[in-house]
Design a protein that fits this description.
With 612 residues, this protein is α/β, with parallel strands linked by helices. The chain is 29% helix and 13% strand. It is globular.
Length: 612
């Protein structure tokens, strides 16, 4: 049975509800809320070939955007000086962005790990000393700003609230608004390779029981030109400290030791050593003709991954390659010199540099940064890359949400806050309309989230709702997605861990990073009939909530619906029962129907309110 862990929690909530019918409404709502908010730690993902799947083997598509600031001197994402974080994340979710890439600096993580989190520049989080903007960033005294780690934890909790997933990107070793210009993952602010690994392992341990933070992008744009030698990132088979492939493999294994469920995103380098002549070596001077080096965008070069792929001891089920790609408004690369097309870009740059990884089913790819200004050849390039990603199911996070990226601009044009009215966010509509076509959505235009229980904003659905609907999506030109192998769910003993809000939690169920060949491929739940799909049943025949058709609405109906949604094969509901059960008025019966019926049983809502 699929969703078995969710079912056990849901049934536990139902038992709690039946024993508290005589209690106050607030007491009853506590277990209901536990079901309504996805805290099951079951949204972890894994890879097979070039695709990414959920725990049950359902294919997913990560389509998101970047929001920078934790990498900068402010030690916090930008624009919260003039915007409420709830308003921002609600708007992001409503616009269909299912994952956010958060750049961060190792120097900041060191301060967290050492128990002395660097302070947030007050201007970056709140320009108003009365804390009318983001009051939950303030201590109980009403005037002291919380530290950078506490605010990061709050933001992660709010991402969960709105059905958004997240991952961090180590943008630079040091805190610097231009830190991305530095070549390596070590060598600044006292950061060594060992410290870089240690901080990522610490963060993975901290969030291992919270699947909001799904992934770790190990280093933004390792780069440098070959003639720089040890000062530049290379990709080869050595154990040299500047060998990015070796360092990334070590770091991946260390993270997977503490959280085998996390995705590990690994970017490329800038130059590869082509070996154009016998005896060429990394660090040799460049040649004017027949250069030994082949260039690419920073972080975009995976040519040497053919010979030296990333293969951690944990296996490759969590490894995602993450190239960056930009257009001519960022830099006029040689492949833009002609009247370029998708085919010329593939021939001249994309295929041998990074696209082969997806095309040859080696591993999934997530374009961690793409974007730019909506003009001329840059717009032409964005449209070509966007359409290529859609056709080939390549994951991506657009650069960026922020308005203050000088060479690209952002999806936002401006943000402002007015007391009593909240935040006003002006989206760059032309750029968003271009980008929006590459967001994961159903054929009816609903945005699809990566959270199994929480819908993605007001205009989206949860992953479970999408899978149960039977609708197709814009994956692979309209298919409903390929099927992968479910992963084995195992319970691992633990002494209890400290959760992001610093409360002690009990040992939890975690997901194995291995797949099973004994388990048959899971199938998508067929679409459940609704009133409009069943013209032979009139409204007068419906008894809202009576799923088992016994002419009463009680806990047995809620239990039956919970089992049905969890795909218990023994939970049979007739067509009439499904009509009765669909009290939320959606395309299919879902977990929200269970909650609404429990509210009716507890007399929180009336019989009239039970109807959709």
């Amino acid at each position: 049975m699929k969703n078995k862990h969710w079912l056990s929690l849901c049934l536990a909530a139902l038992v709690a509800a039946t024993s508290t019918i005589g209690m106050t409404n607030s007491n009853l709502l506590q277990p209901i809320s536990a079901v309504a908010v996805d805290d099951n730690n079951d949204d972890w993902l894994h890879c097979e070939g070039s695709r990414i799947f959920d725990k049950d083997g359902n294919e997913v598509w990560l389509t998101g955007a970047n929001w920078f600031g934790f990498n900068c001197s402010e030690n916090c994402v930008h624009y919260l000086w003039s915007a409420d974080v709830d308003d921002v994340l609600q708007s992001v979710a409503d616009h269909g962005i299912n994952i956010i890439r958060f750049p961060i600096a190792t120097e900041l993580l060191v301060s967290w790990m050492n128990g002395k989190p660097n302070p947030v520049n007050s201007v970056s989080a709140n320009a108003d000393p009365a804390f009318t903007i983001n009051p939950d960033f303030c201590e109980a005294d009403g005037k002291t700003l919380k530290n950078s780690m506490e605010i990061f934890d709050i933001i992660m909790a709010k991402c969960k609230k709105y059905g958004i997933k997240a991952f961090v990107d180590i943008h630079s070793p040091h805190t610097d608004n231009s830190g991305h210009n530095y070549n390596l993952w070590y060598g600044k602010a006292g950061v060594t390779t060992e410290i870089w690994i240690e901080t990522l392992v610490w963060l993975a341990e901290k969030y291992k029981n919270d699947d909001t933070l799904l992934a770790f992008d190990l280093k933004n744009e390792p780069h440098g030109k070959g003639q720089e030698g040890e000062a530049a990132a290379k990709w080869d088979g050595s154990t040299d400290e500047n060998n990015w492939a070796y360092a990334a493999t070590r770091c991946a294994d260390a993270i997977l030791d503490v959280n085998p469920n996390a995705l590990i995103l690994i970017e490329g380098v800038e130059q590869s050593l082509s070996g154009a002549m016998e005896g060429d070596y990394w660090g040799m001077p460049d040649r004017r003709d027949n250069s030994p080096y082949i260039g690419a965008w920073w972080g975009g070069n995976f040519r040497d991954a053919r010979e030296y792929p990333i293969q951690p001891k944990h296996g490759t089920s969590q490894i995602v390659y993450s190239p960056h790609d930009y257009g001519p408004s960022v830099y006029a690369q040689t492949w833009f010199d002609k009247d370029f097309t998708e085919q010329t870009l593939l021939d001249d740059y994309w295929y041998d540099t990074w696209a082969y990884i997806n095309a040859e089913d080696i591993a999934p790819e997530l374009i961690g940064e793409w974007g730019g200004h909506m003009t001329g050849d840059n717009l032409k390039w964005m449209l070509l890359l966007r359409d290529y990603m859609i056709k080939n199911h390549i994951h991506h996070t657009f650069w960026c949400l922020n308005t203050n990226s000088g060479d690209t601009g952002g999806l936002w044009d401006s943000l402002g806050f007015q007391q009593g009215a909240g935040t006003t966010i002006k989206w760059n509509q032309e750029k968003y309309d271009m980008f929006e076509e590459a967001l994961w959505q159903t054929e009816s235009g609903k945005y699809i989230g990566l959270d199994h229980q929480v819908a993605l904003g007001k205009n989206g659905v949860s992953l479970s709702e999408f899978l149960a609907s039977g609708e197709k999506s814009n994956i692979d030109g309209g298919s409903s997605g390929n099927k992968g192998n479910p992963v084995v769910i195992v319970t691992t003993p633990s002494q209890g861990t400290t959760s992001p809000n610093n409360t002690t939690t009990l040992p939890t169920t975690t997901q194995s990073s291995t797949t099973t060949t004994q388990t048959t491929t899971a199938t998508t739940t067929p679409s459940t009939p609704t009133r409009t799909e069943s013209p032979n049943v009139s409204d007068m025949d419906i008894q809202w909530g009576d799923a088992n058709e016994d002419n009463t609405v009680d806990v047995s109906d809620a239990v039956l619906i919970a089992r049905f949604v969890a795909e218990d094969p023994t939970a049979s509901i007739s067509q009439q029962g499904k009509l009765n059960a669909n009290v939320c008025g959606g395309k299919s019966v879902n977990s929200d129907c269970t909650i609404k019926i429990l509210q009716f049983i507890a007399k929180i809502i009336t019989e009239a309110e039970l109807a959709p």
